[in-house]
DNA sequence: TACAAGATCGCCT
DNA sequence: GGCGATCTTGTAT
């Protein structure tokens, strides 16, 4: 298993490229380690689906900062979603971590997600991924490239057979295939775009 | 008035 | 029954 931390410069690239780099990488928080198998790229000003599309705010400030930082945001009043900031300081961009496989600390993961019926379901979805890793708003802004950080990002084996398609749950820009995943039982099968309201 | 936190309802399996 | 880059209300500026 790889134990090399990803570097900031490796992540200071376009979110679309960073997304593919993160596939197969490992995210470790405390005693739980997850292998990232599904991500989505989010850009800034040219991406209406991005939190940054509307400009910089204290909330999404992290996305405008240097690459390699963790951006955790609150959604639906009960869920958290984790993003890995990419691109350089001043340019918004991030990769949403949608799903992963728990490869270490599975017992802890189950204790956090008792409803999970199988290991593959533990981190099958962005909100679950956060809960399994114990990520919350206090985790926002952590440096994933620092060995002393409570949450770290490790390089994995190069992802092969990367697939791509429309992003999930995004009501706009569905024609942009910025969702990437690799073959894994933990990848969510939910792939329908357009929800809530009649978007047709 | 703007931003951020809290909730709910539709679509999913 | 559970999850989700939305929607609404409260607080801060």
From TrEMBL:
Pfam families: Pur_DNA_glyco. Coiled coil: none annotated. Keywords: DNA damage, DNA repair, Hydrolase. InterPro entries: Formyl_transferase-like_C_sf, MPG, MPG_sf. Its EC number is 3.2.2.-. The keyword DNA damage applies. It comes from the Bacteria. Belongs to the DNA glycosylase MPG family. NCBIfam families: 3mg (TIGR00567), PRK00802.1-3 (NF002003). HAMAP family: 3MGH (MF_00527). This is Putative 3-methyladenine DNA glycosylase.
């Amino acid at each position: 298993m790889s134990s090399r931390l990803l570097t900031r410069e490796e992540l200071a690239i376009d979110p679309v490229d960073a997304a593919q780099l993160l596939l197969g990488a490992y995210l470790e928080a405390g005693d739980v380690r997850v292998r990232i198998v599904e991500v989505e790229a989010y850009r800034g000003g040219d991406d209406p689906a991005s939190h940054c599309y509307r400009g910089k705010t204290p909330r999404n400030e992290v996305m405008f900062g240097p690459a390699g930082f963790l951006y955790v945001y609150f959604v639906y009043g009960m869920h958290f979603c984790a993003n890995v900031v990419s691109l350089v300081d001043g340019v918004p961009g991030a990769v949403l971590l949608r799903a992963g496989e728990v490869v270490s600390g599975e017992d802890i993961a189950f204790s956090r997600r008792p409803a999970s019926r199988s290991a593959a379901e533990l981190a099958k979805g962005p909100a679950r991924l956060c809960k399994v890793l114990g990520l919350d708003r206090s985790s926002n802004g952590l440096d994933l490239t620092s060995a002393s950080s409570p949450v770290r990002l490790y390089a994995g084996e190069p992802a092969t057979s990367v697939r791509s398609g429309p992003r999930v749950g995004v009501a706009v820009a569905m024609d942009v295939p910025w969702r990437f995943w690799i073959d894994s039982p933990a990848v969510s099968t939910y792939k329908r775009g357009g929800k809530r309201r009649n978007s047709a």
